[in-house]
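Consider the tokenized backbone below.
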């Protein structure tokens, strides 16, 4: 049995003793606790064992890309994550929080930046503000990746934004936060697929409805070039809407053991060492 090399393009950790994540108060409490990098590695050990038993696929987990957690103190988050990143070889890269603008700050150890566009504090149209566009141009000049998490209704706005920064590597989170496969979603995602600087993280879909999961994953596979699709778990937030093991299984069923999907594309997007 050959090993499938896997890089997880989207995980979170947090220390509630040191950080405040206000959005956790809006959830059902399932994930309202501290998650360490050791917890994350243990979860991958467990999932890998189950996938080998159930799918006859051995996973060689290479590591993951951390994404900011929408806390109320991004500078404190920078300090915490830097220490964890430096100490753990499987902590491959991170996308940290910053408000996009020409005068923006970003930690030099980060590969990317995320300003979450899906949160209530960011109004509709934020990504089309001139200062936001100008900030993205500066990010491209300095080799940063932009992780974009959008309200699904505002994907057309972000499409217009992305077209203005063709030199910037953009990673669209969670299948654009898909809710249903209506014409509006299908059409805008087909347009995103035409942009050569846009990668798509395959994550964020509920795993309990296997038929719907297969439908959305099949549409994604048929629409995007295979060099621009990236596996991501969204752990531990995946626990709010699904199961990490089922998420991996459903991706295996649709994408097979294509190492572009499972590891190589994320290496290209975030300029990771092979």
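A designed sequence for it:
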């Amino acid at each position: 049995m050959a090993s499938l090399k896997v890089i997880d393009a989207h995980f979170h950790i947090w220390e509630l003793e040191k950080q405040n994540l206000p959005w956790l108060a809006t959830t059902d409490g399932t994930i309202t606790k501290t998650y360490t990098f050791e917890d994350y590695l243990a979860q991958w050990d467990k999932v890998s064992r189950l996938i080998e038993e159930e799918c006859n696929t051995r996973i060689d987990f290479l590591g993951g890309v951390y994404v900011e957690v929408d806390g109320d103190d991004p500078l404190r988050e920078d300090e915490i994550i830097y220490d964890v990143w430096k100490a753990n070889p499987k902590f491959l890269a991170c996308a940290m929080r910053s408000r996009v603008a020409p005068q923006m700050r970003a930690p030099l150890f980060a590969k990317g930046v995320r300003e979450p566009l899906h949160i209530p504090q960011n109004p509709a149209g934020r990504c089309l503000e001139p200062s936001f566009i100008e900030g993205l141009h500066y990010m491209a000049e300095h080799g940063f990746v932009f992780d974009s998490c959008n309200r699904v209704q505002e994907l057309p706005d972000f499409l217009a934004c992305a077209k203005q920064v063709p030199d910037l590597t953009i990673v669209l989170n969670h299948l654009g936060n898909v809710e249903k496969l209506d014409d509006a979603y299908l059409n805008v995602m087909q347009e995103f697929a035409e942009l050569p600087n846009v990668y798509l993280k395959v994550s964020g879909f509920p795993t309990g409805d296997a038929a719907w999961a297969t439908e959305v994953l099949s549409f994604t596979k048929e629409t995007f070039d295979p060099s621009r699709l990236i596996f991501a778990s969204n752990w531990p937030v995946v626990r709010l809407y699904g199961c990490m093991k089922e998420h991996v299984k459903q991706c295996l069923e649709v994408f097979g053991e294509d190492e572009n999907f499972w590891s190589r594309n994320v290496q290209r997007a975030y300029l990771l060492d092979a």
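Residues 37-55 form the longest helix (19 residues).
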